[in-house]
Structures are given as structure tokens and as C-alpha cells.
Amino acid sequence: MEIENMVANSALIKAREGGGSRGRSWKWKEMLRFPHISQCADLAMNIERDYHSLCVKQPIGKKLFQLFCRSRPDLQNYISLLDALVISFWIVLKKHGEYAGLGFDHFQRKRHLVVDLHKHLSGEPFIQYQDSMFFDRFLQWKKLERQPISKQLFRQYRLLGKGGFGEVWACQVRATGMMYACKKLEKTHVKKRRGEAMALNEKEILEGLNSRFVVNLAYAYETKHFLCMVLTMMSGGDLRFHIYNVGEPGLHRDRVCFYAAEVCCGLIHLHQKSILYRDLKPENILLDDNGNIRISDLGLAVRLTEGKPVRGRVGTLGYMAPEVIGHEHYGMSADWWGLGCLIYEMTAGQPPFRSRGEHPKALEMEHRIQKQQEEYNHKFSPEVKDLCSLLLTKDPKQRLGCQGLKGREVQSHSFFENIDFRMLEAGLVKPPFKPDPRLVYCSDVHDIEEFSSVKGVTLDQKDNNFYSKFNTGSIPITWQNEMIETGCFRELNIFGPAGTRTPDLDW
Ligand code: ADP
Ligand code: MG
Ligand code: MG
């Protein structure tokens, strides 16, 4: 048993180290061979000709449009100016942090200039781009992106965790060497427990998001027995593991502050998209190999139509807000309560309404959450205590985060005094803790319970309708980023013998 776990771990560590070009299959160029342009005719007919989507949002589209502009003497200056503006923006940000020194006006002017440049480029240049070889190449990449996805595309490594409907495994794309986590939902389990809507909901919400503070979905596909979501690999383990399994329970103040700030940014991003998360707890907050966190497990998330509140007692009892327990209608307030619980637990090394190892009955828990004042011991500084008690306000109308400022008031709290949120959102803050690349931050393979098989469930045509909604293949932005990050784009995107290299600039 011990040996089995060690073998599984070392295989995973080796794959992680070789992630990127060394992890590619020797047949990788064949796997990513461009289709002939004549095979892209249907795509050319049907693809939506939207400048923002084709030339700004999609990473490969953006690169090819840049290359097109650079190839044109009359457009070179536009693109150089755009790059210069964006670069100077980041450099100033990096050097001085928040808009220091340079007035807000300065940045407003630059922002306007960027908007004007895009306005110009989206006119005549965009039309000409669509007639160029660069756009043909874009269509070829798009065609590759839309290839059907099957499990043969991936290598599978060790089991990372277990969820309600199945397991999460480490995996690697054979063609690119990219590591991901594959969440596999067992079809029979989903059917037996009527989890279809929930599975589809999780997949559809994830595919509409693109935030550095939420796990990204890269592929959604099906096999004979499973529905699979391929997600950003989070090698650093979950916060539950770090709070309880490393040293004394609880985390150092700097880490509490950093993780809380990143979760706060993630929540604000979700709420801006009208998505209420509803499942905030340490085991759903995962660390990547640099030590940044992402929110994961969006199975309980809901999109609020027109901001209308919802009802429903969902979540994990210990972390549910009083208004959720009380069968009331609620909105984003439930997530700010969750953040309060999380900050409390990271600081104290135990959740707010229950001591470690204590398992109160459900009714008792509900009573404590709705009526009892939580206690703060010596581990709480005045700032963190103040923040927790404001977030754990029983009345959602009085709670911090619920005053109509879309969460910005949480970021302004004095506990976050030393956090520069603009830098954080740009990914320019160094995390206070970096996971050890030689360690595997999850339970031993054999400690993760096996999934019991379900008997007496047969799959029929109605199930297939649902599977086909789920089975949509690659998610464009994540897939294109994979091609760029692993170097496959650079190595394959060659035009003729001269072989143009692409500049790595970010708009
Ligand atoms: P469920 O919805 O059933 O709770 P989760 O999405 O929370 O399933 O996944 C179950 C477990 O799998 C997590 O607690 C975590 O240990 C592991 N896990 C999930 N997603 C990832 C990921 N992207 N990277 C690494 N491990 C993950
Ligand atoms: Mg979970
Ligand atoms: Mg879930």
C-alpha cells in the first residue's frame, strides 16, 4: 500500500517537472497537424466576425492579428503604440503600485487612447486581416481546437481527490504536455442521484468564466462511463490540508490576509457575472504550484437572473449563512458570510461555530449559527477580529459586502491595508508561501475511499441528450492559452521558410 502510493506520487512529480515540452508525446506534431485550409471553409462561413472576440479575447486570435499588423507598414505604428501603452501601464504599476505619482488622469488618458486604437483597428484593418494568410492560419488553429475530445488525448496519473459523483485525477495532454486535473463524474451515479442539472450547471458556469481566482475549464467530454471536466491543475492542495495537516492548526497572518484577498477578488469576479457561489469552505479553495489560490467546485453556484434573490438550503451546514438556514430569499450576502467563516477558520485553526473534533447535531448547529455570537481568542488581531465580525453579521442587510458596493468595501477594510488589489488582480504580487514542488499535497491514494459502483441503473436516449449538452469539447480561451504556454503555438505557427517568431505581448 505504502509502495503503491509512493510510486503514484513519484510518477506525478516527474510528469509535473516535465510539464511542457518534455511531457509531449513524440507524435505531438502529428497530433497538432494543421488541416488544409480547404477543410476550414465551413468554419470560415460560420464563425462570428466579431473584432473583440477574434482579435482581443482569444489568445491565438490576438497573436495572429498582431502578426498581421506587424507585417503591414501602415499598421506597425498602431500596434507598437498599443504595446507601448500596455507595457508602460504595467511597468508603472509594478514600480509604484497603485497609480502613485502619476495622477489618475494620466491613466484615464491612456485608457482612452487604447480604446481609440482598438476602434481604428476594428475598422478597415480588421476587414483586411480576414483576407490575409494570418486569418487562414487562425481558422486552422480553430479547426484543431474543435477536434472531438476523447480520453485517448490524455495520460492519467494519480487520484487526487474524491467528490460527490466521482473522482478527480491528475492528467496530462499528450500533445502539449500540459498538466490538468480531470473531474470524472460517473454516469450511473449522476443518474441515480439525479445530478444531471447540477453537473451541467457546473460545466456551463465554468465555461463562461475566465478569472485567475477561479479554476478554468479546459475540456468537457464524455467516455462510456464518465462525464469529464478537465480543470486547471492545482498542485498545492486545498486550504483544509494547509490549515490542519501542516504544523499547528491555523495559518500565519500573512497567508490569511493573502488568501482572503484573493478569494475576495474571486468572489467579486463571480458576483459581477451574477453568479452566487454558495460553497465557500477551506476544502474548495485550492493552491497552485506558485502559492496562488483559486476557487473551485462550482457545483452549487447559481446565476441570479436580473439579480433576483434565490432560495434553497444548499451548501455545507457549518458554513451556511443564517438567511440560507432560515429558508429566506438571499443573494450575494451568503458568500460574504462564507468569507467570514473562511477567514475565521484560517486564523483560529477551527471553524467559527464548532470546536475541532466536535460534531454537534444539525439543529444545534443551526441554532448556533443563527443565534450565537462567535468567540475570538488571542490569535485574532484587532483588524482580523473586526473584519470577521463584520462579515459574520447575522442580518444580511447589515453585513459587510452587502451594501451595494459589489464587495469593494470588503477590500477597503483595514485588514487588507497592505494588499494592493490592482497588483493582485494583475498577478504581480508574490505569494507568501510557495508549495514544495517535490511534495504531493493530498491524502495517500489508498486513504481516498473507493467509489462504490451503482447497480440497476440503465442509460437510455434521454441520458444521451443530456450527455451531448455536456460533451462540448475544448473551451477556446483555455485551449489557446495551453497552446501558447506550452510553446506549441510558437513551434508550429511558422509561415514559410523564414519562420516568423511571435512577440509575447499582452494587451
Ligand atoms: P465535489 O464537487 O464532489 O465536492 P470537488 O470539485 O470539490 O468535488 O473535487 C473533489 C476533490 O478533488 C477536492 O477536494 C480536491 O482535493 C480535488 N480537486 C478538485 N479539483 C482539483 C484541481 N483542479 N486540482 C487538484 N485537485 C483538485
Ligand atoms: Mg468539493
Ligand atoms: Mg461540488
UniProtKB/TrEMBL annotation:
<dbReference type="GO" id="GO:0050254">
    <property type="term" value="F:rhodopsin kinase activity"/>
</dbReference>
<feature type="active site" description="Proton acceptor">
    <location>
        <position position="279"/>
    </location>
</feature>
<keyword id="KW-0418">Kinase</keyword>
<protein>
    <recommendedName>
        <fullName>G protein-coupled receptor kinase</fullName>
        <ecNumber>2.7.11.-</ecNumber>
    </recommendedName>
</protein>
<dbReference type="GO" id="GO:0005524">
    <property type="term" value="F:ATP binding"/>
</dbReference>
<dbReference type="InterPro" id="IPR000239">
    <property type="entry name" value="GPCR_kinase"/>
</dbReference>
<dbReference type="InterPro" id="IPR036305">
    <property type="entry name" value="RGS_sf"/>
</dbReference>
<comment type="similarity">
    <text>Belongs to the protein kinase superfamily. AGC Ser/Thr protein kinase family. GPRK subfamily.</text>
</comment>
<feature type="binding site">
    <location>
        <position position="183"/>
    </location>
    <ligand>
        <name>ATP</name>
    </ligand>
</feature>
<dbReference type="GO" id="GO:0007165">
    <property type="term" value="P:signal transduction"/>
</dbReference>
<dbReference type="InterPro" id="IPR000961">
    <property type="entry name" value="AGC-kinase_C"/>
</dbReference>
<keyword id="KW-0808">Transferase</keyword>
<dbReference type="InterPro" id="IPR011009">
    <property type="entry name" value="Kinase-like_dom_sf"/>
</dbReference>
<dbReference type="InterPro" id="IPR000719">
    <property type="entry name" value="Prot_kinase_dom"/>
</dbReference>
<dbReference type="Pfam" id="PF00069">
    <property type="entry name" value="Pkinase"/>
</dbReference>
<keyword id="KW-0547">Nucleotide-binding</keyword>
<keyword id="KW-0723">Serine/threonine-protein kinase</keyword>
<keyword id="KW-0597">Phosphoprotein</keyword>
<dbReference type="InterPro" id="IPR008271">
    <property type="entry name" value="Ser/Thr_kinase_AS"/>
</dbReference>
<dbReference type="GO" id="GO:0009966">
    <property type="term" value="P:regulation of signal transduction"/>
</dbReference>
<feature type="domain" description="Protein kinase">
    <location>
        <begin position="154"/>
        <end position="416"/>
    </location>
</feature>
<keyword id="KW-0067">ATP-binding</keyword>
<dbReference type="InterPro" id="IPR017441">
    <property type="entry name" value="Protein_kinase_ATP_BS"/>
</dbReference>
<dbReference type="InterPro" id="IPR044926">
    <property type="entry name" value="RGS_subdomain_2"/>
</dbReference>
<feature type="domain" description="AGC-kinase C-terminal">
    <location>
        <begin position="417"/>
        <end position="482"/>
    </location>
</feature>
<dbReference type="GO" id="GO:0005737">
    <property type="term" value="C:cytoplasm"/>
</dbReference>
